[in-house]
Amino acid sequence: MKDSSIYYSVGALLYTDANNTGIIDDIMLERFNIPFSLAFSFDMASNDAEADKAENILIKTLDKLFVSKKEREFYIPKLFIKVLSTSHIAHLYKKFGSLLDMITGFILPDFSVSNADIYIYEMQRINSVLSTPVYILPELDCVSLLDLRNRYNYLYAIKEKLATYEDYVLNILVAAGSILNMLCVRHRVDESIYQSGPVAGLLSDIVSTLSSDYIISAPAYEYYAGIGWQEGLGKEIELDKLNGFVGKTVVHPKQILVVNDAYKVPSIDYDDALSVLDDKKMYRSCPNVNNTRINEPKIHYSWAMEVILLAQYFGVKKY
């Protein structure tokens, strides 16, 4: 498992268009529940000219944030840029220059065995000259993982590729939209993607293969309004956590609060985690603080470490 809180601090990841001129006011006026992370995407650009225009707008956004932060204190989320291709990385470095110091990481779409080496090479090049590290968030293409004959070999090949750049892999993102589209599946507000067998199996295989070394963020939940959406999202996040995911892509700012509340650490878990990590109790199994379950350091050590790291970012709640 990862032993630094940075890997657990992506949390609720909200996407916005790179040419969104209004997002700067949303950040500066702190209109969204915090903490959260923000990803700038160029998916709306249909050609090079539109992409170039969006890049210019994003430069102004980052520059204004940089200047405003010097003038007064306000919360700036972790900022990410979803690149268009492997070649886009070098292009952004040349165009954005030192402004990339404000960027926590690049989201690498359609990350695969065939392009992993190029992605990693390009990131190594820019990280060798930047003053602060830019992490990577590989986004797995679920459609390529549908073939059961090759799935396990493919996932382990991805893992081997990432191992050469492991410390810079902040999170692995899973986008389930394409596979849901292929299966002609869309769940209701009171249903979860885990109720779809093929999707649940795929998500399980991804976590089983990669979670020993990387933090994996869960796919988005599409509902953000109407009756039952908060309950539905909350239940899906509980399943995310039970299946080994940490954090979640959100499709609307209203979802951020639900994610943050779900990942806030219950006080009983926090107290148990401290007990498990207590050097004096390291080799002893004993009842927990309210005498309801057994804490076994050899079994619960990794769980306890994760609880403490999550608490540093999301906080602790009475439970």
Automatic annotation (TrEMBL):
| Classification via Pfam families | C-C_Bond_Lyase (PF15617)
Q: Which residues form a coiled coil?
A: none
Q: Name one GO molecular function term.
A: catalytic activity
Which superkingdom is the protein from?
Answer: Bacteria
The record's annotation in InterPro entries points to: C-C_Bond_Lyase-like, Pyrv/PenolPyrv_kinase-like_dom, Pyrv_kinase-like_dom_sf
The protein here is known as: ATP/GTP-binding protein
Its source organism is Lachnoanaerobaculum gingivalis
Q: What is the lineage of its organism?
A: Bacteria, Bacillati, Bacillota, Clostridia, Lachnospirales
